[in-house]
Amino acid sequence: MTADEKTSLAVFLDAAAALTGSGYRSGQGEYHFSDDAESGGEVTGSEAVDSVTAADTASDSLEKIAAAVRSCSACKLATGRKNAVPGEGVSNPLVMVIGEGPGADEDSSGRPFVGRAGQLLDRMLASINLSRESNCFIANVIKCRPPANRDPQPDETAACASFLERQIRILKPRFILCAGRIAAHTLLNTAEPIGKLRGNCIDFQAGDTVIPFLATYHPSALLRNEDLKRPAWEDLKLLRSAIEGSENHVR
Ligand code: URA
To answer: Which of 81, 106, 181 gets mutated to test ligand 1 (max ligand atoms within 8 A of its CB)?
Structure first.
């Protein structure tokens, strides 16, 4: 069995556990499977597991993740999608932007943040010298559009978790900008209001790496409520200062 097949199986079992509330318990979305050896080569013990995990990461790639996302059928969102939306941007991002999930425009095009909210996001990023073309990667917590843009459900978020985790591991972004309540709640595993989570650069533990992490309002929320634009701008300035601080530190 390949690593992707094992991940799909674990994701399926997680979704089943979420529905039944009993039975199977996994590593809560943390999957570190490896492909089975083609033949022989019996490996046992923790040293083997460690080396296999390292090999997994070394052989993973954005292209493999995108292909796995596009062929994923681990949750019910797969049946309603036109296109899955793996994410896009540079492969060594200064900033990884993480949103909630595709809307209608993203579902039609297969690209993240291309509708009205996405155009606003692009302008927000440009105001602090960031863009998906030059120094950002843009992804979402879930990769398929929920019907009528409803919030993702726990089984759907669980089914998608390993894709985002693999993307972060491969991209090793210098900063993470989290757009909106759903993404912040998923990544920080909290239900605190976004108004309390924004406004601070915090340390985000991604595997064995710590990444400076800032949450802000989702651009869709800014389109609905003008009053959120000022605090969002404060967040962007904070991110810019953190970036400049880290650049000065390196020099
Ligand atoms: N909203 C999101 O959170 N992500 C997208 O890709 C588009 C809209």
So the answer is: 106
